[in-house]
TrEMBL record:
It holds the Pfam family DUF8044. The chain crosses the membrane at residues 9-28, 40-57, 69-89. It comes from Halorarum halophilum. This is Uncharacterized protein. InterPro entries: DUF8044.
């Protein structure tokens, strides 16, 4: 069970790191033409959500909560991917 918990923690950290890297890359690449306010607000919210979940949610307390959080993170990652694809298309155009 402990090994499974360690793998889950590593996967969560990987999602967090990739999200931060992608968001930072998009912000840097579009600094001359900034992203619209709603997209920037989503990026800030998503990073805040990841950080607050990491810092304030005990994993062992509620496994059901962590299953729901995974779906929220998955949906957020899809939105980040969509915004990133739009930003890349703008930069390449």
């Amino acid at each position: 069970m402990n090994q499974r918990r360690t793998r889950a923690f590593g996967a969560w950290q990987l999602v967090w790191a990739i999200s931060c890297a992608v968001i930072a890359g998009v912000m840097v690449s579009t600094h001359q033409r900034p992203l619209p306010t709603l997209e920037r607000a989503f990026f800030v919210w998503f990073l805040g959500f990841l950080v607050s979940t990491e810092l304030f949610s005990p994993r062992h307390a509620s496994p059901g909560l962590w299953r729901r959080l995974r779906w929220i993170v998955f949906a957020g990652a899809l939105v980040v991917a969509f915004i990133t694809a739009q930003a890349v298309a703008e930069v390449l155009a």
